[in-house]
Structures are given as structure tokens and as C-alpha cells.
UniProtKB/TrEMBL annotation:
GO terms for biological process: fatty acid beta-oxidation. In the N-terminal section; belongs to the enoyl-CoA hydratase/isomerase family. Transmembrane segments: none annotated. This is enoyl-CoA hydratase. It comes from Alteromonas pelagimontana. It comes from the Bacteria. GO terms for cellular component: fatty acid beta-oxidation multienzyme complex.
Length: 716
């Protein structure tokens, strides 16, 4: 044995070939500081060993190397710029020293080779992947760029155009795709991976493969003439501007770095990469996107633990109510391999539910995402029925009838009488109290809320709502089933609107107050979309939600939390609803919806909406962008804080993920609590106090005021 560490070892075979094997103590290999240190020590040990003819790098696990340990490196990013630069520079030089070993090297890639794992493979002279391989540089998803030589080596291996597409999108490549683009030299079946890598390494050592020419190219400037460079980088900049926009600095920095490094050798190019990495590590976007990654890990970990604790496996599902929502839930269950019975009281509704599922599948076929076999399998897994007797043997029922407490209570009562004693019963309600609905059941311990978001097949979140009597076994089983259905479960406690809608409606209230004070809803939408980063501004979102749905939910919230969410006099939402302007569903709301001559959807500010509101609003005036943002976001932030303080949601991280997955909260802002923290709690309190006279939704809690005074954090 040439070298033995905690994360990797180096052995030497009788024929003179070394094997560097990554085998960390945990479940996966990743680059933490210990592993980087060991790689450097192992490299030095190999460099000083005169008998080595070549080195093979492989993993002893089911994945090569999943990337850097971002949880460990987070603390480094808060240090002064020069310290971060020194760290990333020293780490990158470890990969350089490995690349400079005086013999050929090859990476045998199985499973994930991402981020630092991909950069390890790029530092080798040759790369062979098996058919399970997934290779990529996803740092952009964390608001960062590769920092261990990825921006230097990949463009010199596959060309700057392909390399920038890899890095700016962060998408993984299969082994076959990587081979097609020149990132790997061969793709083989998993059983043949090591044998193929060893043969290739021996060929290189025997000079049958010119590994030295490959290495020289990676250390030299890019081979682009002036015109090629101009075309390549201007195209990349245009693509990044169109796709990423102004809020995500990482892809812009990657293009700029590769462009400026094109004429540099490895040392010069790496210096530019290191400097760009440090700049990005200090941005609010990186802090937010890393925060999302950490929060996502927390949510996934909690979900897996709950699912593992479930004492019941759901093998047959049922959905009650076959409208758009019920059809979407039935589709989601069926497409993930969980058979589902879809029940309604009339055949037309069942046909609507099946049509909804078929429509989603049809679009999947058009986009090449599924084939005819998957379509047939999915539709065959949905059994429509008009009879309660058909659901007697199901393991779980999801009620998705009209959002009316009396109707829901009646359906739930009938359902309990029709199913077995251990069948779990859920309600897909968006606002109605789970504790109230539980009163209609004899066994409330097997009942909880299961709030899907529309459209079901696209929205990742499912709120699991725990009632006062809901058992942990019920929650665990519903979480496990949610995961099985391909969704992200976040467990919350019961209250009006639960978490997502409870924090959304103060945002809508802030919007309504702003319109009544003379703001133009089109201008507000533009600011909230272009400047704050929401996928839809509030007026557009209300049209998509449905003004009838929004008005009804506002009534429910008003009854549940009257001290802050009482109905606003002459609320524009109510004015439009009373005028039968329901939004997208009937083509008219704040906006008029239609299609152009080419059949593409259109959206135009409705003169009729302005006319309806005119008698009730102040004279139209312009508001500063920051004023608009503050008047909408402070109420949302305050209500999220109350939800956390009241124990409705367990952590700030889970609240952030719920808003990200349920509402499309701008990822570069990281979530509502990350937005507050980026501003600083003291500054948030100061900002909110400037608007306190606008009403209770603008007034901060004593809890956040004390946290600000004590210098505390929601993510401590």
C-alpha cells in the first residue's frame, strides 16, 4: 500500500499500476477538507514512487464522487476575501499537482461524478464511464462556479461552447452524452468498467494513446482565433442573458471567466477562476441558493426518516372528486406506479378527471418525455367509479371535492363508513381547518390534510397538515405516500390557510391596499416579476388562482384570523369577482386572456378592470420600486414569522422550501426567511416600522423585535 487515509487509499499492482480508490467513511464520496488533504498526500506519495507506470482513479462506492461538501465549505465563505481566495487557490493546486504526475492517469467513472467529482475526472488524462454515470458541473445551482479547475479544463477538452452550456445550465450528462461531446473516451457496461479502464491505461503507458498531448492541451490557451472567440462568447452571453436574467450572477461570471482565460495558460486561467469563485461566494444569490440546498437537504432528510418510520404501506389509493384537481392527483398517483380509484357522483365529472390525466400525458408525448406504453400504463392505473363500495379495500383516500366545509364534512363521513378501519383519510383542502373537518369522523387519528398545489403534476409541494388528534403513524404513512407520488412533503400544524396560503393572503392584502392607494396593477406586477423575481406578479397570480377561489379563501382567512385578515372594503379582488370576472378560467380578470392569430395565448390589462376599480381607488400615482416591494413582502414576512413562532411550521428552512415549491418564491432570494436574513433582522424591523401605520399585517411581532435586538438568526 502506497498510501492509506480515511477517505482514500493508493495501492500498487504487481505490474506497476497504481489504483487511487475513493472510499469515504460515509455513504458517498465527497470532497471535504480531509479528502482534499488526503488527495494531496496521496499525490505526493505517488509522485515520489519511481515504479508507477500509471494510475487509475476509481470509487469503491456506487457513485464516483458526488461533489464538494458544501455544508463544510459554507463557513469558509463568510471569511474575508483574501482567506477564501487562498483556500480555493490552494485546493485547486492540489488538482494541478495530481494532473502533473509523471505518468498517465485515468478515471473510471460510475454513478455520479458531479462538481468536484467531475473536476477530479477532468484532472485525469483519460476518462471511461459506465452506463450508470451521470457527469456534470452543477455549481451554478448554488450560485457558484467550478472552483477546482473546471472552467479551465472542460473548455480545453470539449470546446468552450459545449463547456459553457454544461456549466451555465448545471445539467448532468449521461455517459453516452458525455462521450458524444468528448468529455469521456469510452462508455462500457458497469461490469466491464475497471477492465476497460485498466486496458486503456496500459495502452497509454505503452504510448499507444498520446496522453501527453492531451495533458499539454489542457494546460495551454484555448485554440480559438479572434473571430471564433468573439462568436463563441457573444453567443454564450446572449444565451445566459435570455435564460438566467439579471438576478443570477454565476452564469454571467462563468462566461466572462472562460472568455478572459481563453488566451491564458493553466496557471493564468486558474487564477481568473479562483477570483471569480470568490466574488460569487460573497453574493447574496450564492448565500440564498446554498441556503435552498441546505433547506432541501433538511426537508428530504426529515421526509425519509418519517417514511422509514411508517408502519403501513399504501398500495391502492383513492381520490374523491374528479375535477381538475382530483384528476391531477389521480394522474400523479398513477404515473408514479400507485394504482388509484377515482370516485365522483356523476359520470361527466369522471370523464373530466380522466381527460385531465390524458391531457397531461398527451403533452408528455408531444415533448418526448413519455411514450405510448407509459400513457397506457398510467391511464390503466386509474379506475373511475360512481360507487363508494369500490373504495372499500383502498389503503388511503384523498378527498378533493369542492372547497366547502359542509360538503367536505359530509363526504368525509360517508367515506369513513365505506372504508376499512385502518384506511387513512386525507382532505385536499387549501384553507379549511383540519380540526373542524375531523369533527365529522369517528376516528380522527387516521385523518390529516394533504394539500396539493395546482397544477398538481408541476408543483412539487404537498402540505401535510396535522390535526390535534392525528396520529404520528398517519403522518408518517402520508409522508411516505407523498414521496412515492414524486412530491415533496412538508408537515405543518393546523391553522387557517395552514402555511402557504396563510402567508400568501397578507401579500394579496398588501397588493389590494396598494391598488386602492392609487398604484397601477400592471406596474406592480412588473416590479414584482422583473425586480423582485416572482414568476407572476400578484394581479396575474390572482387571475391564475381564480378570483372566485381567492375571494372565497379570503373569506375563510378573515373568519379564522379576523384581527389581521379582515376583508378589505372595496377589495379589487371582490369587485372583480362580483362582476363575474374570474381570471383565466373565464378569460377575464385583472387581465383579459385570449389567443393571437397564431393561436398563442395573450394577456392584456383589462380596461374593464380599471373601470370597476375607478370609483374606489385614489388617483393613480407612481410608487418607487422598493416601496412596492416593501408593501407586498412585509405582510408575507410577518405572517411567516408568526407561523414559525406559533409552531405551525417547524423551522425557517422548511418555511422557505414550502414557499419555493408551493408559490415559486424567487430561488435567488432563497425563501422568505432567507430574504429577511439577507436584509438583516434589525433592518427588516426598521423597514416594517416605516409602514406600521398601514395596519396589523405590517406590524412586527415582539419575537422578531427581540431577535433583532439580540443579534440572533433564524438559521443558527
Amino acid at each position: 500500500m502506497i498510501y492509506t487515509g480515511k477517505s482514500l487509499t493508493v495501492s500498487l499492482s504487481d505490474d506497476g499500476f497504481a489504483e487511487l480508490v475513493f472510499d469515504a467513511e460515509g455513504s458517498v464520496n465527497k470532497f471535504d477538507r480531509q479528502t482534499v488533504k488526503e488527495l494531496d498526500e496521496a499525490t505526493q506519495a505517488m509522485a515520489s514512487h519511481s515504479e508507477i507506470k500509471g494510475a487509475l482513479v476509481r470509487s469503491a462506492k456506487s457513485a464516483f464522487i458526488v461533489g464538494a461538501d458544501i455544508t463544510e465549505f459554507m463557513s469558509l465563505f463568510s471569511k474575508p476575501d483574501d482567506e477564501v481566495l487562498e483556500w480555493v487557490g490552494n485546493t485547486a493546486q492540489v488538482f494541478d499537482r495530481f494532473e502533473d504526475l509523471p505518468f498517465p492517469t485515468i478515471a473510471a467513472i460510475n454513478g455520479f461524478a458531479l462538481g468536484g467529482g467531475c473536476e477530479m475526472a477532468l484532472a485525469c488524462d483519460l476518462r471511461v464511464a459506465d452506463t450508470s454515470a451521470s457527469i456534470g458541473l452543477p455549481e451554478v445551482k448554488l450560485g457558484l462556479m467550478p472552483g477546482f479547475g473546471g472552467t479551465v479544463r472542460l473548455p480545453r477538452i470539449i470546446g468552450s461552447d459545449n463547456a459553457l452550456e454544461w456549466m451555465t445550465t448545471g445539467k448532468d450528462r449521461s455517459g453516452a452524452k458525455a462521450l458524444d461531446e468528448g468529455a469521456v473516451d469510452a462508455v462500457v457496461e458497469p461490469d466491464n468498467l475497471l477492465a476497460a479502464a485498466r486496458r486503456m491505461l496500459k495502452d497509454a503507458a505503452a504510448n499507444k494513446l498520446d496522453w501527453q498531448k492531451r495533458r499539454k492541451a489542457k494546460k495551454a490557451p484555448l485554440t480559438l482565433n479572434k473571430n471564433e472567440a468573439m462568436m463563441s462568447f457573444s453567443t454564450a452571453q446572449a444565451m445566459v442573458s435570455a435564460q438566467a436574467g439579471k438576478h443570477y450572477p454565476a452564469p454571467h461570471m462563468m462566461v466572462e471567466t472562460v472568455k478572459n482565460a481563453a488566451a491564458q495558460d493553466r496557471a493564468g486561467a486558474l487564477k481568473l477562476e479562483n477570483e471569480g469563485f470568490v466574488k460569487l461566494a460573497k453574493t447574496d444569490a450564492a448565500k440564498a441558493q446554498i441556503g435552498i440546498f441546505m433547506a432541501d437537504q433538511l426537508v428530504k432528510s426529515k421526509g425519509k426518516k418519517m417514511a422509514k418510520a411508517a408502519n403501513k404501506q399504501v398500495k391502492l389509493n383513492a381520490v374523491l372528486g374528479a375535477g381538475i384537481m382530483g384528476g391531477g392527483i389521480a394522474y400523479q398517483s398513477a404515473v408514479k406506479g400507485l394504482p388509484v380509484i377515482m370516485k365522483d357522483i356523476n359520470r361527466d365529472a369522471l370523464n373530466l378527471g380522466l381527460t385531465e390525466a390524458a391531457k397531461i400525458l398527451g403533452k408528455g408525448i408531444e415533448r418526448g418525455k413519455i411514450d405510448a406504453s407509459k400513457l397506457a400504463t398510467t391511464l390503466n392505473a386509474i379506475t373511475p367509479t360512481l360507487e363508494y363500495s369500490t373504495i372499500k379495500d383502498v389503503d388511503m383516500v384523498i378527498e378533493a371535492v369542492v372547497e366547502n366545509p359542509k360538503v367536505k364534512s359530509s363526504v368525509l363521513k360517508e367515506t369513513e363508513e365505506a372504508v376499512s378501519d385502518d384506511t387513512i383519510i386525507c382532505s385536499n383542502t387549501s384553507t379549511i381547518s383540519i380540526n373542524h373537518l375531523a369533527e365529522s369522523l369517528n376516528k380522527p387519528e387516521r385523518f390529516c390534510g394533504m394539500h396539493f398545489f395546482n397544477p398538481v403534476h408541476r408543483m412539487p409541494l404537498v402540505e401535510i397538515i396535522r390535526g390535534n388528534d392525528t396520529s404520528e403513524d398517519t403522518i408518517n404513512t402520508v409522508v411516505a405516500t407523498t414521496l412515492k407520488m414524486g412530491k415533496t412533503p412538508i408537515v405543518v400544524n393546523d391553522c387557517p390557510g395552514f402555511l402557504v396560503n396563510r402567508v400568501l393572503f397578507p401579500y394579496f392584502a398588501g397588493f389590494s391596499k396598494l391598488i386602492l392607494d392609487g398604484a397601477d396593477f400592471v406596474a406592480v406586477d412588473k416590479v414584482m416579476e422583473k425586480d423582485f423575481g416572482w414568476p407572476m406578479g400578484p394581479a396575474y397570480l390572482l387571475d391564475v388562482v381564480g378570483l372566485d377561489t381567492a375571494d372565497h379563501a379570503a373569506d375563510v382567512m378573515s373568519q379564522g384570523i379576523p384581527e389581521r385578515m379582515h376583508k378589505i372594503d372595496n377589495d379589487p379582488v371582490t369587485l372583480l369577482h362580483d362582476a363575474k370576472r374570474l381570471g383565466q378560467k373565464n378569460g377575464k380578470g385583472f387581465y383579459n386572456f385570449g389567443t393571437d392569430k397564431r393561436g398563442k395565448p395573450t394577456k392584456n390589462a383589462a380596461d374593464e378592470a380599471y373601470e370597476l376599480m375607478a370609483p374606489h381607488v385614489k388617483e393613480q400615482q407612481s410608487f418607487e420600486k422598493q416601496d412596492i416591494i416593501a408593501r407586498l413582502m412585509i405582510p408575507m414576512a410577518n405572517e411567516a414569522i408568526r407561523c414559525l413562532e406559533e409552531g405551525i411550521v417547524a423551522s425557517a428552512a422548511e418555511a422557505d422550501m414550502a414557499l419555493l415549491y408551493g408559490l415559486g418564491f424567487p430561488p435567488f432570494r432563497g425563501g422568505i426567511f432567507r430574504w429577511i436574513e439577507t436584509m438583516g433582522l434589525a433592518k427588516f424591523v426598521e423597514l416594517a416600522d416605516q409602514y406600521a401605520e398601514l395596519g396589523p399585517i405590517y406590524q412586527v411581532t415582539d419575537g422578531v423585535r427581540q431577535m433583532a435586538a439580540d443579534g440572533k438568526s433564524y438559521f443558527a
